[in-house]
Amino acid sequence: MDILRVKELLLQAAENPDLSFDDWEITQEMRRGWEFYFIRHQLDQNRAKQVRAINLKLYKKSGDGQFLGSASMEIDPTASDEEVMQVIRDLIYRASLVKNPVYSLVSGDGKAHQSFKMVSLEAISDGFIRALQDVQETETEDVNSYEIFVSEISRHYINSQGADYLTVYPSSMLEVVVNARDREKAHEIELYRMLTGGSCDRDHVISVIEKAMQYGKDKLICEPTPAIGQAPVILSGDNALEVYRYFLMQMNVSAKYQQISRAEIGKPLQEGIEGDRITLRAVRELPNASHNFTVDEEGSSIQEKVLMEDGIVRAFYGKRQFAQYLGIDECSNVYNYVVEPGTASETALRTGAYLEAVEFSDFQVDPMTGDIAGEIRLGYLHDGDTTRIVSGGSISGSMNEAMKHMHLSSEKTLYDGADVPSLIRFDSLTVTGIS
Amino acid sequence: MKAKFSPYLSRLAGFFRELSEVLAEKYEYVSILSTDSKGLAVRISQRAKSVSSETMTTERGNVVRVLLDGLYSEYAFNDLDLEMALWPTKRQRMEYVQDMADLISMEIDRQRELLKKTESAIYKTPALQGQPQVMLSEMEAELLPEKADVKALVDRMSEISLKGAGSMPEALDCIVSCQCTHINKMFITPNQYLRQSYVYAEGSVSLIVKGDEDVKFAREGLSGRCGLELFNNLDQVLDKTILQAKDLLKAGRIEPGEYDIITTPEITGLIAHEAFGHGVEMDMFVKNRALGKDYIGKRVGSELVTMHEGAACSPSVTGYAFDDEGTLAGDVIEIDKGILKTGICDALSALRLNTVPTGNGKRENFEHKVYTRMTNTVFDSGSNTLEEMIASVSYGYLLDGTESGMEDPKHWGIQCIVSRGYEIRDGKLTGKVVSPVVMTGYVPDLLGSVSMASADREIEGTGGCGKGYKEWVKVADGGPYLKARARLG
């Protein structure tokens, strides 16, 4: 069974007066993957996969045309024609039970559109394996283990309105654990990194791992975080991305429609901003991003647009269903975004007394409530003259307050799917210490 | 009634046995795991509704594991020519079996070529020795997802959602979510033939309410190794959610500090999971990534701390008969009266550590690798009543509602984000609520401070568990109310 046969069966079903439905979408994803699992630099296991996933979604309007129902189901590649016809019958019935306000699928021109990016599983895997072999290890800092995942993904989307998009792209992930230990080997530190991207960016991989080793080395000589109370806090890396994701979520049509977001076009997300005001743009592609697409998973052409400008909400993004409920005709998902740089340099942000927290157990900014929380695993506590390396305790706060006094660096860093200011400084978060 | 094993897998059993035999001519070990798990997921709110057949664990596919020269390799696939695989004439069927074996072998050989080219060393592991075994386990469930009366379920959930949304002026929406999955797995080696069929269900009722400055989210879940009958009493779940939402609306911020705490069974489970669950997953011992390796036989908690782990511990969402490597479900006492006794182990890690597997080798699905994973992680009960425990606290908090947790097996740090803290002063609940609460600390300090445990015990499995930030599997955890001391912020 494949996507084209499912389409043929749908067209046959549409001829049957007993099988009434209005629209359909089929997505077929072919995943070809190679995986390598290393302990130290010895291969623990290798894996390969070849998988076809077909998803069929059927839409049915209510008798009075006021509501639109939908239901979806995975279709097994080994399914027979009869089994697919039964799936179609089941979906028609289930869709009739769902009553959502009416919305429309994306309209295509009836032609097949294809976007290919060449993928060599062997070449990308080779790049990762050699990059890890080239990491500069020492007697006291080294790589504990790593897992390499390289995929070629072929996503084919078609619908009843003539949309037909095939996208073939590479997707990679690297999980690395590094250790640092004292010379007596009495105490060992572990740090974790997960990198995603299109293919292997050798220099970036090595740089991230070697920086993690340096953090590990510092953690060996850390002291307990004192109970500081309210203090300026600097965030970077994945922890800064978590903050940017909070802003991004506020402009998501799903959050807006469900009243989780209070963002309104033309209005600031928060009053009384005294720090930097965020400017956030959705872009179609970023270098080596794992989701550089021209259309999203609903077939909508990916738009490049300003979502927030100087703290003012300018546009929403996300699924067509919720966009149309909000009266937005053109909308697409965001896979890549840019946050414009702030006004102060990293050096300027790193002045006075502050805590630069670089490692957490799991730093989180709740996209709904804006609650900020994370246990500190490594931080650098500056008092203006001296720096202490600290660990333990937690950082907490609320974005509603924290964003009023937030400063972004003028230097930027590129991550998978995000090009953002490297540092964020909050003037006041709660730091719960352990000494 | 018994949840009948998948007819689809039964039909393919002969083909996979033949495939395992052909592969065994080249490889030192061969196993095949085939899955066929169907589900139903319904989500109803006042603003959007959906019906889908996909849950976290629905899948249909196969993964072949082979061993050659000390290296284990796997090939995962889901596309088969069924006509050829089920061909009645053995000679022609075997042509297809040979084609599949060649395809698998060729892909693994291509990877091996790359490993040679990159001069990668191999972590050599001996061959697994599966004892000859045949098993068919079909567990009890009343209402299977594939035979669900979807209309009745949608109508019932719509009623609850409407009632929840109208329960208070601050309510913005009420989301009712119900999922049910019928798991079917078949494990085949040249001398093993294991089949299992069981059904689990999980759901939640959530209320989104508007606070003074932000939105609050209250959620009450339910789960069990059963069918859709789990959702017969959603009214009671809604009532609990409404109480939570009212508490969140009046919640303030906690003054950071160290406090006496009482954890509800839900938070007790979170601690069990994050504190020692991950810390004794023995694939981490192989990588020297867990401090627990050096603490076997040593004290890690108070006398009141006894912790079990295993799929056989409880008929929960992860109460299976055998794991994804064909090891039968176990019940391991990890901590006995405060002393760390042992960990949990998948089959390959057990070979490397010269120990026995405990039935904890799990995959996210057939596309993913096996890791040592938790199943039911549970503290044993004590002898106190909750009232006695509250009465013993001069100033502290009763902690309830899981937001998230994070493990730290290497350094034994713990981070639990808890939805609500209920203030206790002079042995009484004051009615004051704080939210959210970040509980952090050093695991042996936290478990060492456990001074009381209630006589009752609850186990739930409404969420998923990742290893690091990936590999999501179903787990359950729980225990009694515990009294301890922790740092809150």
Protein described:
- The complex is a heterodimer of chains A (435) and B (489).
- In chain A, 52% of the residues are buried.
- By secondary structure, chain A is of the alpha+beta class.
- In chain A, the strands form 3 sheets. In chain A, strands 1, 2, 3, 4, 5, 6, 7 and 8 form an 8-stranded mixed beta sheet that branches. In chain A, strands 13-12-11-14-22-21 form a 6-stranded mixed beta sheet, covered by helices on one side.
- Chain A folds into 2 domains: 216 residues, 2-Layer Sandwich (PmbA/TldD fold), CATH 3.30.2290; 209 residues, no CATH class.
- The N and C termini of chain A lie far apart (63 Å).
- In chain A, a hairpin with a 6-residue loop joins strand 7 and strand 8.
- Chain B starts with 6 loop residues before the first helix and ends with a strand.
- Chain B has 2 domains: 229 residues, 2-Layer Sandwich (PmbA/TldD fold), CATH 3.30.2290.10; 232 residues, no CATH class.
- Chain B has 489 residues and is α+β, with helices and mostly antiparallel strands.
- The model of chain B has no long low-confidence stretch (mean pLDDT 95).
- The chains are: A alpha+beta (435), B alpha+beta (489).
- Strand 2 of chain A pairs parallel with strand 4 of chain B, so a sheet runs across the interface.
DSSP strand content of chain B: 35-45%
Tally of DSSP β-strands of chain A: 23
Q: What's the CATH C level of the largest domain in chain A? A: Alpha Beta
Most extensive interface: pair and counts? A-B, 87 and 76 residues
Main sheet of chain A? 8 strands, mixed
**By CATH's scheme, which homologous superfamily of the largest domain in chain A applies?**
PmbA/TldD superfamily
Cα shape of chain A: globular
Oligomeric form of this entry?
heterodimer
What class, by secondary structure content of chain B? Answer: alpha+beta
Number of strands of chain B: 26
| Alpha-carbon Rg of chain A, integer | 25 Å
Provide a quick synopsis of the model:
The complex is a heterodimer of chains A (435) and B (489). By secondary structure, chain A is an alpha+beta fold.
